[in-house]
Design brief:
- With 286 residues, the protein is an alpha/beta fold.
- It folds into 2 domains: 100 residues, OB fold (Dihydrolipoamide Acetyltransferase, E2P) (Beta Barrel); 115 residues, Rossmann fold (3-Layer(aba) Sandwich), CATH 3.40.50.11830.
- The chain contains 6 helices and 11 strands.
- Strands 2-3-4-6-5 form a 5-stranded mixed barrel. Strands 8-7-9-10-11 form a 5-stranded mixed beta sheet, covered by helices on one side.
- 35% of the residues are buried.
Length: 286
């Protein structure tokens, strides 16, 4: 089933909680997936929406730390303060926190919390209600609102010799088929830059003079979704598929980004509905 159909099936709101759908990751046949790929999309908000205990679910929040062994209930100021410190103190635990609902979940079985400390994230995992712990299958940085609001895009294949030259046309075809963005030939008119390269992005799209001058070995296809005003990378991933499969790797990376963007867009709708329900059920003040 296509991703769109699965998303539509997963995105039916139920009252008072949203329905929960298992998350299935689809590896490409014959290739090693370097990072993550989400096949079925669902969303579950911390505290605001109900959480099913069976099967993998998608959670959103911020990676923070709390002292001690167990999950805690934090005030908004406490959670904000702890999210600013990237290093947990001795004995502290990295957790997924939602200051709005003042809830915290412990995270089990993943090494990324330390790397993503202080960031808004999407977590795929299974919740143990009894202990307040999410058994994490995968975790990645959430997309910022600027990405979900973007309408135009510019494609840049940075220092793309030999086989990497296939990335630009493959990206243009995939983005055109998607239809989500208007492709512009002027990066100054773009909301987002889709940057492809055989080298990791250095974050210098705005500041450097000319193309990347590092030596190129066409082995890994890197994709970054870049802010054209600041050079910040909003999203990145790669495929180590070699020079003969640059076009296929490019399309696969865009498809992965496409599904994650749909998570963010559906999550925004879910948050607004949940907030509206809370407001409508709140007692009137006199």
């Amino acid at each position: 089933m296509k991703a769109e159909g699965l998303i539509n099936r997963a995105c039916c709101f139920a009252s008072p909680s949203t329905q929960s759908v298992p998350v299935v990751r689809r590896p490409a046949p014959g290739f090693h997936m370097t990072k993550r790929f989400i096949g079925v999309v669902a969303w579950v908000f911390l505290g605001a929406l109900g959480l099913a205990a069976q099967g993998e679910q998608i959670f959103k929040g911020k990676i923070c730390w709390v002292p001690g062994e167990r999950a805690a209930v934090l005030g908004e100021s406490q959670a904000a303060a702890q999210c600013t410190d990237a290093r947990a103190k001795r004995g502290a635990k990295y957790v997924l926190s939602n200051p709005e609902s003042k809830t915290v979940y412990q995270l089990n079985g993943h090494q990324k919390p330390k790397v993503l400390a202080g960031n808004d994230v999407v977590v795929i995992g299974t919740l143990d209600r009894a202990t307040g712990t999410i058994d994490v299958a995968d975790m990645f940085r959430a997309l910022p609102p600027k990405v979900t609001r973007a309408k135009t895009a510019y494609i840049d294949c940075d220092a793309c010799p030999r086989g990497m030259a296939a990335a630009w046309l493959a990206a243009f075809q995939e983005l055109t088929d998607w239809g989500r963005f208007d492709i512009t030939p002027d990066p100054r008119k773009a909301d987002l830059i889709f940057l492809f390269s055989a080298n990791p992005y250095l974050g210098d799209y705005v500041t450097r003079d000319g193309p990347d001058k590092r030596p190129v070995s066409v082995d890994i296809t890197y994709m970054d979704v870049v802010d054209p005003n600041t050079g910040e990378s909003f999203w990145d991933d790669s495929r180590q598929w070699g020079a003969l499969f640059v076009a296929r790797a490019t399309k696969d990376l865009i498809e992965e980004f496409r599904e994650e963007l749909k998570i963010e867009e559906r999550a925004t709708v879910g948050a607004e509905l949940s907030r509206s329900r809370r407001d409508s059920s709140a007692p009137l003040s006199h």
